[in-house]
Amino acid sequence: MASKTLVLPGETISPDILPTPTNPNLLLKLGPGLRHVPPSTITSTIAGPLCIDQKKNAIWVENNSGRYIPQPNDLIIATVHHSSTDFYSCSITPHTTFPQLPQLAFEGATKKTRPQLNSGSLIYARVLTASKHTDPEIVCYNPSTGKSEGMGELKGGMVFDISLGLARRVLMAKQREDGGIAVLEEIAENVAFEVAVGRNGKVWVKSGGVKETLLVGRALQEADVQGLGVEEQVKLVRKMIRQV
Amino acid sequence: MPREAEPSINERAFVLQALEENIRLDGRALDAFRDIDISFGDDYGVADVQLGKTRVLTRISASIVAPYPDRKFDGVFVIITELSPLASPAFEVGRQSDLETHLSRILETTLRRSQAISTESLCLVAGQKVWSLRADIHILSHCGNLVTAASLATLAALRQYRIPDTSIKGGELTVYTPLERDPIPLALLHHPLCITLNYFENGEKMIVDATLQEQQCSEGEVVVAANPQGEVCLVQKGGGGEVDALVLLRAVDMAVGKVRELGKLVDRALEKDSKMRDKGGISAELSAENER
Fold first, then answer.
1. Which of A74, B37, B135, B194 could anchor a disulfide with B225, C-beta 3.0 to 4.6 Å?
2. A-contacting residues in B 83-122 (Cβ below 8 Å)
3. Angle subtended at Cα B236 by Cα B235 and Cα B239, rounded to the nearest 5 degrees
4. Does B5 contact A at CB distance below 8 Å?
């Protein structure tokens, strides 16, 4: 389970905080924000809470940084920019190069039955490969199962920008306990809506009318900007619902 | 590479649909501004304006130069705009983008060609020495409506700036340092400000102070520069969908009202700043009481 202490850049992590693995052959995994200085020192490079996961034998520093860097197996919301012969060039963030989405990378797609995406369409996709030297590649199906699992073109609705930290917390399996996000569950009790969260800091919301969609989007953005805890989020949502 | 995030089809459709119901994404009225914050630096002539997430900093500086040979009695006033990549991923260092040309042209016309500053008052020794005023406008963050933010910052900085006092005795020019004589305010003939209005639905709907998203989804924009007395200095419609002449007249009306509002904001900010700087005059200097 994850337990937290606060670290500053340049602090050495003392060995007694490090998790003791049940399986001694399992190596300690270092996540983002930590650097290994051989032979056995680990220093943090950013400020934030240090998270330790005993089960996976991993440690990392949580951060809410500004720009998204594509990592394999991340779910993201991309906008198609233009299409060329074999693939679509999509935009994930305005700062990076265009990832490529092969035109056949959809569930059950063949040359004759592939979906036609226009420039400017929104898609929910998974990052397949991402490295410093090549353009990232994204696909609209799960490579291990071959099913689309909700990925593909997103029709209608609206996209809102949120911070990377909030996107990560919303994507956790148990939003309320681990991530501290109660906004979506609270709103779901009163309003019907669909959401797709991209790890690149974008949330796609679709609901009955403009006001409901705006309610969901703005509730998330307010919870993000003001850094609200679970009870404060519930209060905010109740206030916003009453205004609609 | 410089690239601004273009809105997707879904976002565009949503913004237009919301506007049909007269709803803006941040819940403002169609003619409401975002929160405006005007603050000044320690030196005279530095103004920092925050309009929602858009942020502009202007600095005024002056130096003595020889005048242009065909304008022997006029001082020089230059406006330099700088759009750095810090403000938006669409900007690149050193390359003049369309937005920068648009911005600098509008500010030139509003402040220089409308004679907001009396350039004759900047003349020191005719034909030999004049003040050269320079306004450096730095765009720190771009989230829509750069023109209004930049014009607010520049006007506030100009009104707050104090230029060193001078005197001429027998052909000899003496420039006094701030310790010898208090610097004097600039001679501003009027206080013009720019308002950008974005229109939708063939000019039927106009919004004031559009965010970047609303600007990208709009059909076009009209820039109006006026002063709080109601005199219009500039009406510019560069491209965009065609509109009726009545729409332009409505835009000018709306803009003049908004300029009055903004003018009062600048007045209040300047008052607050002068109170902070006021050291109390002679009686405060002669007082022997210590600050505890």
1. B194
2. 89-90
3. 150
4. yes
Among A97, A120, A211, whose Cβ lies nearest the Cβ of B9? A120
Given a cut of 90, whether residue A164 has pLDDT beyond it is no
pLDDT at B281: 65
CA distances from B24 to A220, B152, B193, B265 (A): 17, 24, 24, 24
Residues in A touching B21 (Cβ below 8 Å)? 210
pLDDT < 50 positions in chain B: 1
Chain B closest-CA separation from residue A221 CA (Å): 11
Query: What does the pLDDT look like over B179-235, one tens digit per residue?
Result: 888 899 998 999 999 999 999 888 888 899 999 889 888 888 899 999 999 999 999
Residues of chain B with Cβ-Cβ distance to A211 below 8 Å are 23
**Distance between CA B6 and CA B3 in Å, rounded?**
8
Model confidence, pTM? 0.84
Q: Is the minimum CB–CB distance between B185 and chain A shorter than 8 Å?
A: no
Q: How many CB pairs under 8 A join A and B?
A: 53
Single-letter residue type at B23? I
- For A176-234, give the secondary structure using H, E and C: HHHHCCCHHHHHHCCCCEEEEEECCCEEEEEECCHHHHHHHHHHHHHHHHHCCCHHHHH
Alpha-carbon gap, residue A96 to A4, rounded angstroms: 32
Closest residue in A to B85 (Cα–Cα): A95
Select the residue of A118, A211, A213 nearest B9 (Cβ to Cβ). A118
Tokens of B39: 């603050």
Q: Is the reported ipTM for this assembly greater than 0.90? A: no
CA distance B81 to B97: 11
The three-class DSSP label of residue B206 is: strand
Over residues A24-83, the pLDDT tens digits come to 677 777 877 788 888 778 888 888 888 777 777 778 787 777 788 888 888 899 998 888
Name the residue facing A158 among B5, B11, B90 (closest C-beta).
B11
Say how far apart CA B42 and CA A104 lie, in whole Å.
61
Kindly determine whether residue A121 and residue B13, on different chains, have CB atoms separated by under 8 Å. no
- Give A121's contacts in chain B (Cβ within 8 Å): 8-10
In sequence order, the 6+-apart residues with CB closer than 8 A to the CB of A87 are: A100, A101, A102, A103
Distance from the Cα of B5 to chain A's closest Cα (Å) equals: 5
Nearest residue on chain A to B19, alpha-carbon basis: A210
CA-closest candidate to residue B192, choices B237, B223, B161, B164: B223
**Confidence at residue A178, expressed as pLDDT on a 0 to 100 scale:** 67
Pick from B222, B230, B223: which is nearest to B259 by CA?
B230
